[in-house]
Design brief:
α4 crosses α6 (about 280-290), α8 packs parallel to α10 (about 365-370) and α11 packs across α12 (about 475-490). The chain has helices at about 180-195, 200-205, 225-235, 235-245, 265-270, 280-290, 305, 320-340, 350-355, 365-370, 445-460, 475-490; strands spanning about 1-10, 10-20, 20-25, 45, 50-55, 60-70, 75-90, 90-100, 110-115, 120-125, 140-150, 150-160, 165-180, 205-210, 250-255, 295-300, 345-350, 380, 400, 425, 460-465. The strands form 2 sheets. Strands 1, 2, 3, 4, 5, 6, 7, 8, 9, 10, 11, 12 and 13 form a 13-stranded mixed sheet that branches. By secondary structure, the protein is an alpha/beta fold. It has 12 helices and 21 strands.
Length: about 500
């Protein structure tokens, strides 16, 4: 047995190696790699009024061959164990859920969830959903009632006796739901459902376009002008005419992507991001030009960047959390009051990251702020491939990249968000932002894309296609030709 000890202020790290098995009493690595020495995690305080999530990134003890991958989920291969140090405020009963993508190779694997007083065994079943070829994360109920006693204790999630070396599942988190809070949780869910705005116009439009026009977008020669100069030179009429040529029913246009720039004189944005607004109101001009052609505008805002929350920090202070709330209230109030019906919707990014670091985020308050000036405005909060972080939204963000299974009566079957109206977001090029002079060939053919759009329309869903866009507001000819052909097929 080898023992390695490293003292760093008050943190003590231990690694015990027993032959080929290694127990690592550490947190998880920041890199996309196997475990390395890191900070020992502090105890997780369970909540009595809402769910508590035990994320893979918060595990205090790990065993086995585990790999943290992009998006903070963990590939679990062979025998493994994850454990968390939790603090239970009072004796209570909880529902137990697993947030994971269970692979075919993991079918019938025996899983043990262990608390101080109980051992619970489960068999894994492959998850189902719309993603073709897998990666269907779901919220899976493991046990309707588990008892946890007051005080600090360890809980663990493990698989043993595995002979193969296949990846069994992609683990995101364990969710503990206090039975005592079930009624209040259900009441909030009902309020959220009743508050949802109709997405009929989105569904009827069939398809739209998204443009990642950012401070990192390049000119045709690869150069980049200052953001304000690019905003001042943006040809709105030419842009709107191009959109009309594609037959798109709506446009999602980015604000605060990559860097916190806003193409309009929004005072509250300028207060949070000095020097990153413009005198020209490109949002209003684009909205007016599109609306004249019967096309709606949806604004993209990156949550952490736009409202200033550092989701890369280990922990957030109360002041940082309150500042985030104040920022989204001020910015959304000003934008809503200024643009009213000019903005038909929002597409908010990076919300699974926000929720992981700030689980007490006031979603109902956020939702109300997004409706200022236009009660019919529709919104989504992007949770990527994971289950929705909140019912306080109107449609699924659907960041899928490539076509997935079509909806049934407007909703996905199984998968991460079967409760939200279906909207799938594809990419025409192999990336979101045009950061090179050469525009690549389209990933999607007009025939394939048209069929997918028509199938989704027939089943109550909408499809959005992200087109690469240069800093001057133009797009690639080949991609534009594909969309013109789509228009001729879908809009005939």
């Amino acid at each position: 047995m080898k023992i390695f000890i490293k003292l760093n202020l008050l943190t003590l790290y231990l690694i015990f190696s027993f032959g080929s098995e290694q127990v690592v009493a550490t947190g998880l690595p920041k890199e996309n790699n196997h475990f390395s020495l890191d900070e020992l995690r502090s105890s997780i305080q369970l909540k009595e009024d809402k769910s508590t999530f035990l994320y893979c990134t918060e595990a205090s003890t790990v065993k086995g061959e585990l790999k943290l991958v992009g998006g903070n989920n963990m590939e679990c291969k062979g025998n493994f164990e994850l454990a968390w140090d939790i603090n239970v405020p009072s004796n209570g009963i909880y529902e137990l859920y697993l947030i994971a993508n269970i692979r075919k190779e993991g079918e019938n694997t025996d899983i043990l969830f262990k608390t101080t007083g109980e051992n619970m065994n489960f068999k894994l079943k492959p998850t189902k959903g719309p993603y073709l070829g897998g990666r269907n994360f779901q919220r899976i109920e493991l046990e309707s009632e588990i008892s946890l006693t007051k005080g600090q204790q360890m809980v663990s999630f493990s698989a043993k006796g595995i002979s193969g070396d296949h990846i069994l599942l992609d683990f995101r988190s364990i969710e503990l739901v206090p039975i005592s809070a079930k009624k209040s949780i259900e009441k909030e869910n009902l309020r959220a459902l009743k508050s949802r705005e109709s997405v009929d116009w989105l569904v009827k439009s069939g398809y739209g376009l998204m443009f990642h026009w950012t401070s990192e977008s390049v000119q045709h020669d690869g150069s980049i002008k200052s953001y304000e100069e690019a905003v001042n030179e943006f040809d709105v009429k030419k842009f709107a005419d191009m959109v009309e040529d594609t037959g798109a029913g709506y446009v999602i246009f980015t604000i605060g992507h990559a860097e916190s720039y806003c193409p309009a004189p929004i005072k509250s944005w300028e207060k949070v991001h000095p020097g990153q607004t413009t005198q020209r109101d490109l949002i209003a001009e684009i909205a007016d030009a599109l609306n004249k052609k019967g096309v709606e505008l949806i604004c993209y805002i990156n949550g952490p960047l736009g409202f200033n929350l550092d989701v890369k920090k280990e922990t957030l202070t109360d002041n940082e959390q309150q500042s985030f709330v104040n920022n989204f209230q001020d910015i959304l109030k000003e934008m809503g009051s200024r643009y009213k019906n000019q903005i038909a919707g929002y597409w908010f990014d990076s919300w699974y990251q926000i929720f992981e670091k700030f689980p007490e985020v006031p979603f109902e308050k956020f939702n109300k702020a997004t409706k200022i000036g236009n009660q019919n405005r529709i919104i989504c909060l992007n949770s990527w491939i994971y289950p929705s972080v909140t019912p306080w939204q109107d449609y699924w963000a659907g960041e899928v990249g490539s076509p997935i299974d079509i909806p049934v009566n407007g909703y996905m079957q199984n998968g991460p968000a079967p409760e939200l109206p279906y909207q799938a977001l594809l990419i025409m090029e192999p990336y979101w932002v045009q950061q090179k002079s050469e525009m690549p060939n389209p990933r999607l053919s007009s025939q394939k894309l048209s069929k997918y759009i028509l199938d989704c329309m027939d089943n109550g869903g909408a499809v959005t296609v992200n087109l690469g866009i240069y800093q001057d507001g133009t797009v690639g000819k080949k991609a534009l030709d594909v969309m013109k052909e789509v228009k001729s097929i879908v809009r005939k």
